[in-house]
Each structure stands twice: as C-alpha cells, then as structure tokens.
C-alpha cells in the first residue's frame, strides 16, 4: 500500500473514494464548483491510500484554520477531515498508515496542533486526539418561553448583563453574506475553541448553513450605532424553528436574538442547535424546565504535536508550577516537562524532576482549551496525580476565561 499526497488532478478520484467509503453519492456542484460541503478542499493537503495495483482505497484531508486559544491567542491548526476507508479494506491498517503519514507531515509545516470532528468517538483517541469542546441542543416550547425578570437589581426590561440598546433586522441568507462573514470573524477571535472560516468557505458556500447557500432567514442584531454585532440563522418547518447558530460574544445581544426567535408566530417550539456549556439562557426563562437540553456531545478534538510550544502559546489565568509526564504511544514519543506560569505567560521546558501528573497526549488535548477539568480525568483513571493538590492546581491552571466552544463544521 502507498500513501501519497494529492494534486488538483486527483479531485474526482478523491471525492468519489471518500463518498464510497461512507456509502454516499456526490452532489452536483453549482456552476463555479461551489455550493457543496466539499467545495473548499485544499488538494495540496489531502492524501490517498493506494493499493499495489494503483486502486484508491482511503482518503484523509486537512484544512488550514486558525484556532482561538484561551487568552484570545490565534494560532494555525490543521483541521483534519475527509477521513475514510473503503469497506473492503477496513481493519487492514489503512487508517493508521494515513494518520501516521499525516501527523509526520504537519510538523514541517510549522503546525503544532491538529483538530478534527470525530464521526465515531472511539476511533481518534488512539491517534492522540482528545475531546476538547462540547455542545448541546436546547429545545424551548414556545408557550413556555416567557423570560424571567432579572434578580440582580437590573432595571425592568434589562437582561442580567444590561439593557439592549440595539435593534434586530430580519434578512434572507442571500442578502447578508458579508455581514455573516464579518460578525463571525469578530466572534471567533474572542471565543476560545472557535475556528476561523476562511473567505474561501463563504465565497464557495462550503459546509453547513449559514455558510452554505441553503435558504435561511437571518436575524441580524445591530448595536446603537447600527453596526452588526450578532446574528441568528434559522429555518422553520412543521411548527419547529431551528436555529443553526447564534453568533455573538455579548450575552445581552444573545438574549435579544433569543427573544426574537422565541417570539416567532406560528411556531410550537424553538431548537437552538449549538449551545455552549454553562450558557445562561435556561436561567433567563421564567420556567427553568422550559429549556430541555439534549444531544450533549463532544465537538472539537485536539491533538498536540509540540507540547512545549502548545503550552506556551495559550494564555493563562493563574500562576503555578506543574511537572507533566506526557506519553504519546501512537508516535512512540515520551517527554517530561516543567510548566511554569507567571503573569499570564507560560514557560515549558524538559525536566527530570518527579512528575506531578502523568497523562497521555490525548488527555492533554482534552484539557488544553480549558473545557475538560484535569481532575475529571484523574477521577476517571486516565490521568495519574502523584501528589495531593496536583489535580486542583492543574484545574486552576488550565481553566479558560470562559468555556471553549466550537460550532464550525468541517
């Protein structure tokens, strides 16, 4: 078997092999090659697995993204996608060979982090990826959608974070592409765990709504000066209003958009598809049980390729010192590092000191963005704490300014 990079000439073979691996048939691209979920492929970053007689049996691809780390630090990451093996060649080492080839290719590119969305949770942990952000669906029955009065001394009509002085405008998806792109870019730069959406994605309509050109209504929030600072993309079908995503870093703006969609006529329920952990919306409703959470799931998985660089690139919010003993079984690597945090910056160097925590690189990926407490993985038996207080210190060190969240699909 041969693993080889692709070129533009391999596009049809790559797409056909990927679809066959998942039992799907390719859509017909719109004029210009856009409008389908795979239209933003970067062919110089993809791989084909070929048999000895030249037949394609597996695919693996990657996108070039920026990831927002705690502290609003932006770093380049490889967004792994398009991973598939034909049913006739599964469990023969094809996937492992492609993953090993791909990881070996990332370091020379200067990328020290790789991320993906896992179609099946058990697969990617063995390649060093760990679930790092989480999301859930929130369904609100409209007849129970009344908002509670704030209890923090706020004036009547205000949210817990202040009075909304802006406005909401209803547009169609086709009318507001530039607004969506601009607002999302501002959001992702401030939200830990968020990924960039390159202009190429918006231009080609690649991915899921509202990036794709699928018909959607968009509630655009504007601040007091008329500048767009948030949006909610939604569709209505059979009495259910489904919100693809609500984009804003301001709780007051989120509340204004939530009020807008929850006030829609001729709708029995409103479904918010992507709500981050700990979001206050349920608490803002007069009936706490009116918001029913479901489909609580992992979303972005993170893989560290250079531990010292990864730990020094993110922001930190507590001072302290930890010795981390990190095992990377898939790449056959092992390192022990002294992590020292002072005034929001970290230094990470090899050490021979006794470890405070022993963990696998996949567990380090899970805690890296602050969405998984190290103590949780200690209690689960995945991380070993070698002294009392080590897990609590790790919790304090690895926390983010707010829960990481990613809703970009790739």
From TrEMBL:
The protein's matches in CDD domains, at most eight in alphabetical order, are given as: NAT_SF
Q: Which organism is it from?
A: Streptomyces filipinensis
Q: Please tell me whether the keyword Transport is annotated for this protein.
A: no
Top-level lineage group: Bacteria
Family membership noted in the UniProt record:
Belongs to the acetyltransferase Eis family.
Catalytic residues (UniProt) = 124 (proton donor), 410 (proton acceptor)
Q: Where is the N-acetyltransferase domain?
A: 1-198
The organism's taxonomy opens as: Bacteria, Bacillati, Actinomycetota, Actinomycetes, Kitasatosporales
Protein known as: UPF0256 protein
* Binding residues annotated for acetyl-CoA, in chain numbering: 83-85, 91-96, 119-120
Q: Which chain positions lie within coiled-coil regions? A: none
How does the annotation summarize its subunit structure?
Answer: Homohexamer; trimer of dimers.
Q: Name one GO biological process term.
A: aminoglycoside antibiotic catabolic process
Question: Does Acyltransferase show up as a keyword for this record?
Answer: yes
What's in the keyword line of the UniProt record? Acyltransferase, Transferase
Example GO molecular function: aminoglycoside N-acetyltransferase activity
State the InterPro entries in the record.
Answer: Acetyltransf_17, Acetyltransferase_Eis, Acyl_CoA_acyltransferase, Eis_dom, GNAT_dom, NAcTrfase_Eis, SCP2_sterol-bd_dom_sf
